[in-house]
Amino acid sequence: MSAARGSAYRSGQPAGKQRFRQPRSSDAAPQAAGESSPRARLRGKGRKKSRGPQGKQAAIRSASSSSAKVSGQKGSSTGEQLGPLAVDELEVHIADHQSRLKIDRVLVRRAVRQVLTDYGFHRGVLTVALVGDRAIRRLNRLFLGEDEPTDVLSFPLEKAPGVIEGEIIVSTETAQREAQRYDNDPKAELLLYVVHGALHLAGLDDQRLRDRRKMRREEKRYLRLFGYKIRMAPSSTTRP
After folding, report:
1. How far is CA 45 from CA 49, 159, 190, 235, in A?
2. Do the beta carbons of residue 73 and residue 64 sit within 8 Å?
3. Neighbours of 11 (CB within 10 A)
4. For 212, phi and psi rounded to 5 degrees?
5. For the segment 150-176, what is each residue's pLDDT rounded down to a tens digit?
6. Distances, alpha carbon 218 to alpha carbons 4, 45, 139, 162, 240, in Å
7. This prediction's pTM
8. Which residues fall within 8 angstroms of residue 147, CB to CB, at 6 or more apart?
9. What share of the chain is helix, strand, coil (3-state, %, to 5)?
10. What are phi and psi of 220, to 5 degrees?
11. CB atoms within 10 A of CB 226
12. CA distance 220 to 188
């Protein structure tokens, strides 16, 4: 998730400049279920990266009420009513803040649930936010210190055995651009980002070559499961 060039699998990018990186668990995600995030939450002043984890979590919780109203959901994906321990299934909410791509909400939900249940998470609340490059660039700058757009950000908020709460932020603008550049189906490119974010939430990493190879295998497996193929570079390389 670091570089502004391309997506995670294209060759030609120097080692160590992978696009997909997951913020530390101490970095709270924005509440993505409504207008308060990512756009509105980033407009005001006084939001410093040095804010402690508790302060960040409080900011997320305070946005839950207005977010739910915007999205038409009962409660917030990270609010008290729908916390990961308060539900008896794996809930996946979609927050679509873009108009570039028509989103198959059923497919996105199925993909996130499939990945996380396969890795042992059967209860919890996940939010997938679809945004443009401008919004994800702000989040990338705020949480990773990189003033560039990226394709996907994943934020693990809470974890317990079998239970998870988290958020996945995806740029459909990047998905559309990269799909055209590498002759992929935009829906497949978008699904790739969603699956990758879910795999990070499940605990997979891709910093080392061995881990990256496993990540690539899993991504291909899930894309095949949902009927998609995508052009990928070998695990030893990343997209430019």
Report:
1. 12, 31, 32, 41
2. no
3. 13
4. -65, -35
5. 999 999 999 999 999 999 999 999 999
6. 24, 40, 26, 20, 21
7. 0.70
8. 137, 140, 141
9. 40, 15, 45
10. -65, -40
11. 15
12. 11
238: its two tokens: 């990343």
Q: Give yes or no for a contact between 11 and 237, defined as CB atoms under 8 angstroms apart.
A: yes
* Residue at 52: amino acid letter: G
Q: How many CA atoms lie within 13 A of 31 on its CB side?
A: 30
Q: Where are the domains of the chain?
A: 52-225
52-225 in CATH: which number? 3.40.390.30
The token duo for 233 is 């570079």
Alpha helical stretches, state H, the chain: 53-62, 64-71, 105-118, 133-144, 172-181, 186-202, 209-225
How far, CA to CA in Å, does 149 sit from each of 20, 42, 169, 217? 12, 15, 12, 26
The string of pLDDT tens digits covering residues 20-63 is 445 544 444 555 433 333 323 323 333 333 334 444 443 333 33
For residues 8 and 233, give the distance between their C-alpha atoms in angstroms, rounded to a whole number. 9
The pLDDT assigned to 62 comes to 33
